[in-house]
Each structure stands twice: as structure tokens, then as C-alpha cells.
Amino acid sequence: MKYTVNEKGYYGEFGGAWIPEMMYTNIEELKTRYLGIIESEEFRNEFDKLMKDYVGRPSPLYYAGRLSEHYGSNIYLKREDLNHTGSHKLNNTIGQILLAQKLGKTRIIAETGAGQHGVATATVCALKGIKCVVYMGALDVSRQAPNVKKMKMLGAEVVPVHSGNKTLKDATNEAMRDWINNPEDTHYIIGSVVGPHPYPDMVARFQSVISKEMKSQLLEQTGSELPTRVLACVGGGSNAAGAFYHFLDDEQVELIGVEAAGKGVDTNETAATLTVGSPGVLHSARTMLMQTEDGQIIEPYSISAGLDYPGIGPLHAHLHKTGRAKFLAATDEEVLQSVLLLTQKEGIIPALESAHALAALDKIKMNPDDVNVVNLSGSGNKDMETYLNYFGY
Amino acid sequence: MNNRINQLFESKKENIFSVYFTAGFPRLGDTVKIIQELEKNGVDLIEIGMPFSDPTADGPTIQRSSEVALKNGMSLKLLFEQLKDIRQSVNIPLILMGYLNPVYQYGMEAFCQKCAEVGIDGTILPDLPLDEFDAEYRKYYEAANLHNVLLITPQTSEKRIRQIDEASAGLIYMVSSSSTTGAGKKVEDFHQDYFERVQNMNLKNPRLIGFGISDQPTFVNACKYAQGAIIGSAFVTAIKDSVNLEKDIATFVKSIDPGR
After folding, report:
1. Which residue numbers of B have CB closer than 8 Å to A's CBs?
2. 3-state DSSP call for residue B11?
3. Tens digits of per-residue pLDDT, A87-106?
4. Predicted ipTM of the assembly
């Protein structure tokens, strides 16, 4: 495959493992063992069984009739919002908790922004009876209170992070510090296709179940396993990586990633890394970053706590650079209108993150016979307060 | 070979006292003064911290000093500007310590040339791993007679330590325990067996022990197992509210090693 990672952990010029020596032993262990473990039959069986009986997969591929009529083209929704815990995040945490067990780790750490990855991590730790510590920016702790309570109820310790902007980037810094301080018993479950090799590849493989299912569902529903295009939102990029994965080498399938423009890519309040960023090294990967001329990281902004990350997975930086995928950006305002549209056309309230992918439908040209698949990565339950305040119900 | 790091370790074999501080902290203009006062009080080697917005290998103290330094307006460009005449007044080896991204944006080749120009002897960039350094950057370092100082930790395998020793030409930075900087682990928490194991490996490079060295007992203990030790967070804390650097730096150095 042309777009998979090479043996040194690179997608083209992006990726690698730019780790301090304190993380070397753990990353080296992961690097040498992850493929052997996750490709073993025993692991596959355990993973597939949990995907089916615990997560509730396959998630439906739903033909959105009234939305299709609205856009004059065929819109399918991949319903990751219907997974247990309400998003695609569980696909990855199930994979990583099984891996951590095989590595003999007895303590799990994770970072979280909106809390979806934190909840998905706390969930699998409860499932397996493993100690769990979740780092979360103090600002996110206060604006995502229900998820914080959920994690605690699931038995996780939630540590508010007070450094920097008190959001996802800072939570990631703190989780890395924890791993440096606890190198022997701990596995770090990174929630997206970011961080040092092999994380971007490992997480993409766990999430690739999304596009694998899409192919067989499309074949059944449309007679061809290839759609015209696939759309997904991108923060770090895990749901997009999963939705694109099995189409990467089918070059006729158009891949569209949608970043968070925040208040606009021409303002200081944005999280559209590929639009405003430049190459650099953060969180142990060389990728596109929002940064100053002096190489200091710029704090991102988006209404969606799951997309306000100043970097992006190296796979997406590569897809952007090579032109294999096209990346657009949607503003807070556009996203909220898309939330309302889907809610009232289809009776589905999407997560703020996922609505970025929906908002792109207004930005692209679609023919009547096109097959457009939107990855609906998460449910809007966690965002109800934002919606109620904004729409005034 | 006229690198000052090599000269230091040739002339002095033990109790090497090295201090880290963050450039631009507590005040933007303190950089040169701090270096001069440290040398005047008998410190052997200085690590000048280049502040970064996301210092993942550092504990709260250096996170905080970095944040303040950046707020004060510190940048790599300004730091080189501040250091341009440093070799007119300071003779001890100087090392720049920080994270890769600001250096990457400055341009590695330009950075190395600038280091040579102002008289910097080495760098410590924890998130620049050995294989990436060898592949892309070693040539610039060698052209500038600049040492890239690599770290080892209690988890580093013997094979890897040998590899790092082979790749180093100045010194090895021995991280005392599995931790971020200033983690406050006590002397008794130190991996005595790790110290002894490395000491018995007869490495070609001298070693300095850092992370968690904060007072006289930890300094003395570390010096038993290496040519010397590095103090960072404790020094940053000692000068954080300083209005009289001359006095506070003299007091701090004496508190670690009364013989200086």
C-alpha cells in the first residue's frame, strides 16, 4: 500500500518517533511487538468478538433520504454514533487495552479533550479491571462536566491539567510526563493517530474497521464497494484515518477531511492546522503544526473540544501534501447549521465534531448519481448544552 | 579539538558542578548576568535553557519558568543576540538545552553555525533521538565543532548505552531516575544499582548526573557515581523572585558546595 507507514515510522516526510530517551524502552517495545500481537489470530478473535458483542458493530450504513433530497445527491451516514459510549473512540481503546494486557501492563493512562476518548478508555479499563488515570485540561474539565462524572463513575481517576491553555494539548503533555515517570507498569492509550510511531499506524489499524465495514455495506446497498467520496472531520484525525483506510489505494475514491475553522481560518481563533500550519515536531512526531515563527505552539480554538488540537496525524499531513485527500475547513457557525439540518431532516443529533464533516456537503460539488459517505463519528448527547444555549430551545 | 567541554573534562575529573537555567527568566534581560555570576562563583558548566511552549520532559518548575520566559518575549533569535559577546567575559563551557521544534524552525544548519559564532559548545535536545540526529544533523554539528549531548536513563539497556557512548564525543547526561525534571525524588530513591552498573561499564565519555539533584546531599551522592552533577529546577526556584542575582546566586552555589 502506497499510503501506509514505512519501517521507520514515516508517511512520506511526516511521522517518526521523536522521543526523549526516557520513552525509548517503551516505544521500542511497542514498535517491535505491536504488529505481531495485533495480527495474531488470538488477538483478532478477541478484538472481533468485542467489536461485535460489546461495541455493537457493525455500525449501520444509513441512506439519509431526506438529506439526500436536500442536497440532490446520495448521502450515506456511517453511524459510529451508535457505538457503545457514543463514538468511534471505543474501536481504538478496545484494541489498545487488549494490547496492553499482552504487554503485561497493569496501569493505563490517557489524555482527553471533549472526554470521549477518556470515557472510552475508562470503559475498557472497567471492562478489564485495570487501573486508569485520565489527564484532561482544566478548562475542558469544567466545560465537559458530564463526561468527567462518567469517567469517575467508571472508576477512573481524572486529573485536571492546569498548564498552558488547559486543553487537549496540555493534557497530552501531562500524559507523556506521567509515562516518563512510570515507565515500567504503564501503557499510554493515545486517543488519535498522533504521537510517536507506532501510534499513528496502530490507531489507524484499529479504526480501519470503519472503512472495512463501509466497503461491504456499500457493496450490498449500491452494488459497488467504492463510493464517489468519503467525508470525515479531522482533529488529530482518528475517525478520518479509519474512514479513509481501506480506500487509500482506490484512487478514484475522493477523500475529504474537514478541519475546524473555528471563527475562521483568517482569524486567530482556529484549529485548521493544514490551512494555517507548517511542518514541525510536537508530541514526538514530525507533522503540520500551528506555530509561531519562533517554533512555539499556538493554542488552537474550536467550538468543538474534540478538534482543538494544534497538530494533526502524520498520515493526514502526508495525504494533504500528496493531494491524495482534500482538506476543507468549516466554521463554528456553519457547523451549528449542519447540526440543525441533520437533526430536523433525519432525526439524528450529531456531535459537534462530526457535524464538521456534514458542513462540507455545502462546500463541494456533488452530482445526482454520486455516492457520498459521511462518517458520523459521534453522537450529540455530550453537546446538548451547547446546542440548547445556541438554538435557544 | 578545542571544544570547551572536552577541555573541562580533561582538566577536572570529579565534582563538576553544572547548572541549568531558563533564558529570559525571571526577567528577559537576565541571561548574561546569570551566566557571569555562575562562573564567578565557581560553577564549571552551564546549560542555558531555550524555552518551549510544550516542555514534555520537564516538571512544573521548568514548565513555569519557560512559560514566563516566553511571556517576557524570549526567542531563539533574541537569545543569540543576548549571547553575541558572551565569550568576551565567560570562559566555561556553555550548552544550549531545549526542545527540537524552535531549533527546527530556526533551521538546524543556521542554528549550528550561530552556536559556533557565539561560542556555544554543545546542545541537549531531548526530543532529538540518536538515529534522527545521525541521519540528518550530525554533519552540521561536526562542522560547527558542537557536541550533541545524549541522555541515558535507568531503563536504557547496556547495548543502547554502548551505542550512545560510541556516538558521543563530549559527555553523557545520565538521568538519575525515571522522571521529568524536578520530580522531587529523594536520594534514597536513586537507582544505586543503575549508577554502579554504568560506572563499571568504563565508558569513553564522562558522565554528569541530572534530574532530581537539588541540594548538597544529592549533589555529593551523585558525584560519587559520575564526574559531576547538574542542578536545574532547584536553581530556577532559587532565583525566581530574585532582585539581587549577584547575592542569590552566590548563596545558592555555596549551599550546594560550600567549597566553591
Report:
1. 52-60, 63, 67, 70, 75-77, 99-106, 126-129, 132, 150-153, 155-157, 160, 175, 178-180, 183
2. helix
3. 999 999 999 999 999 999 99
4. 0.94
